[in-house]
């Protein structure tokens, strides 16, 4: 198999990369020879992930760059993208993976407004700001023949029949609509816009959404045959590497 687009010092950028699905995708694409630019809010987690990947991969074949960024800040995202492009060149692939759900099983009117804002800024603004910055400051729109992969959710297909999903479901529906509209707008540019829709994945994400209450977590997961983060990473690698060879 030929992975030239990943091995010629052309970086891939992943947001929400420090734990869970993001970390698994970073590990998997490193195996394919991708140079990685990893963005997340927590610098210590990014450092740990980078060291973990380097311990398993020959660091002479790939490069890993990490930057702590608040994805809810357009200024921070734009500055971070501009800086990494100056240091490493244009970005080939953007993976939007940031996600946040809080206070389950609280219904919408029972949420704190701060939680509503936090989820919306992360799940909606975060995707918009990163995509906008990579298309412009990242040089993707000028070069074409690049890929944007938005990690959405099967949740976006139909509202779950239990409480606490109004903001998360709504934001995932937004991500799907944004992905579809952006794909149409970029038609003819050779920029692929893809959506990856995982089901329920056993990660830190679902523990956090119930405030790390084990009983609540077990209750939420009851009846699900959960995916692993590595399953989602394998799907992402297929979409970005193998499937691309047939297009």
UniProtKB/TrEMBL annotation:
Which InterPro entries does the annotation name? NAD(P)-bd_dom_sf (IPR036291), SDR_fam (IPR002347)
Q: Name one Pfam family in it.
A: adh_short
Q: Which UniProt keywords apply?
A: Oxidoreductase
Top-rank lineage group of the source organism: Eukaryota
What are the recorded GO MF terms, alphabetically? oxidoreductase activity
PANTHER family in UniProt: ALCOHOL DEHYDROGENASE
Similarity field: Belongs to the short-chain dehydrogenases/reductases (SDR) family.
This chain belongs to which protein, by name?
Answer: NAD(P)-binding protein
């Amino acid at each position: 198999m030929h992975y030239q687009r990943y091995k010629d010092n052309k970086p891939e950028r992943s947001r929400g990369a420090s734990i869970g699905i993001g970390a698994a995708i970073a590990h998997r694409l490193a195996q394919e020879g991708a140079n990685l630019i990893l963005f997340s809010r927590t610098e210590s987690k990014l450092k740990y992930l980078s060291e973990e990947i380097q311990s398993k991969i020959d660091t002479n074949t790939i490069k890993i760059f990490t930057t702590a960024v608040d994805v809810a800040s357009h200024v921070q995202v734009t500055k971070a993208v501009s800086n990494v492009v100056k240091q490493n060149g244009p970005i080939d692939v953007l993976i939007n993976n940031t996600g946040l759900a809080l206070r389950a099983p609280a219904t919408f009117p029972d949420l704190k407004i701060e939680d509503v804002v936090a989820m919306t800024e992360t799940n909606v603004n975060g995707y918009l700001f990163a995509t906008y910055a990579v298309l412009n400051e990242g040089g993707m729109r000028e070069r074409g023949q690049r890929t944007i992969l938005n990690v959405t959710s099967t949740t976006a297909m139909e509202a779950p029949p239990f409480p606490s999903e109004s903001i998360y479901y709504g934001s995932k529906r937004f991500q799907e609509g944004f992905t579809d509209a952006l794909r149409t707008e970029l038609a003819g540019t050779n920029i692929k816009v893809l959506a990856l829709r995982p089901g329920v994945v056993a990660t830190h994400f679902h523990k956090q959404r119930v405030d790390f209450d084990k009983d609540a977590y077990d209750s939420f997961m009851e009846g699900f045959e959960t995916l692993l983060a590595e399953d989602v990473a394998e799907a992402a690698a297929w979409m970005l590497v193998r499937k691309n060879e047939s297009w």
